[in-house]
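User: Sequence recovery, please. Input:
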């Protein structure tokens, strides 16, 4: 699986490699039912696999991992930095039910994804996957935001609305607000419903469809690593049967202020291999991130 090395007891579990078994969607989620048509599933294509070995076959870019994300304007897709890192090309699908793509994932090549006569034709694609300039894959959690730039939308693919950037300092204001007066949140993605490792710690992932689901979540605070001080690059939302939450494959997916198109985080990681407890969500309301994102998003 494409997973993060544990860092201070935090294991990144939100991106999922295409060699994993079939997957469902947001943990304890419910069907999106057309509420967020600008949220899509992205597949990253590479010339090499996770070990750096050449996987080029017949001069084809091969599918390597998948994430979720949000179309922010006509040619910009927002996701996590660890989702864009190392990608040579990206294809994006916006359907709510992507079982056809999931079933053929081991055979999908980028040439098929961008061929509009193919049964696997994508809704959008790009050769420009960019992670935050300070992104470090060994310390992914510090700047975990990425952009797919220069996106080409397939003929006939249009959106009435796009994702919107948040106000500066949104999360600081939320944390200073009494709990019962805070906003509600909606997290959207195409990840797993659950993850249950086997006795060797390998992922034994849920069986199901690649479908777009949504869940809620209650704000807990900033992420605290290994008993140390809180890191305000992240906020923490609950991930349980009552509120819902995120799991593998939801990386890069948005958390919206409920009832709006305003994206206030991208999903980054979980704290254990079973996707239980809480979700680590990278906040994009800081001056640094808004300035960087503003270079791409109209």
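Assistant: Recovered sequence (298 residues):
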């Amino acid at each position: 699986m494409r997973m993060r090395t544990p860092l201070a007891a935090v294991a990144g579990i939100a991106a999922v490699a295409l060699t994993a078994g079939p997957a469902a969607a947001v943990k304890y989620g419910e069907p999106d039912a057309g509420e967020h048509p600008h949220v899509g599933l992205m597949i990253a294509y590479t010339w090499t696999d996770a070990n750096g070995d050449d996987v080029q076959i017949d001069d084809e870019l091969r599918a390597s991992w998948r994430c979720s994300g949000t179309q922010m304007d006509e040619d910009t897709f927002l996701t996590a930095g660890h989702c864009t890192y190392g990608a040579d090309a990206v294809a994006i699908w916006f359907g709510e039910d992507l079982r056809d793509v999931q079933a053929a994932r081991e055979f999908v090549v980028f040439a098929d994804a961008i061929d509009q006569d193919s049964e696997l034709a994508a809704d959008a694609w790009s050769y420009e996957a960019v992670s935050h300039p300070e992104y470090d894959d060994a310390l992914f959690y510090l700047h975990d935001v990425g952009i797919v730039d220069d996106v080409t939308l397939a003929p006939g693919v249009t959106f009435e609305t796009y994702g919107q950037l948040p106000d500066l300092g949104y999360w600081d204001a939320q944390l200073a607000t009494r709990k019962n007066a805070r906003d509600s949140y909606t997290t959207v993605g195409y990840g797993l419903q659950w993850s249950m490792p086997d006795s060797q710690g390998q992922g034994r992932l849920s069986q199901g469809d690649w479908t777009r689901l949504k869940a809620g979540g209650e704000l807990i605070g900033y992420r605290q690593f290994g008993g140390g001080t809180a890191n305000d690059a992240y906020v923490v939302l609950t991930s349980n049967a009552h509120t819902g939450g995120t799991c593998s494959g939801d990386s890069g997916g948005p958390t919206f202020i409920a009832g709006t198109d305003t994206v206030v985080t991208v999903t980054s990681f979980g704290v254990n291999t079973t996707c239980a407890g809480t979700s680590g969500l990278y906040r994009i309301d800081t001056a640094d991130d808004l300035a960087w994102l503003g270079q791409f998003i109209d």
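Helices lie at 81-84, 99-103, 110-113, 170-175, 287-293.
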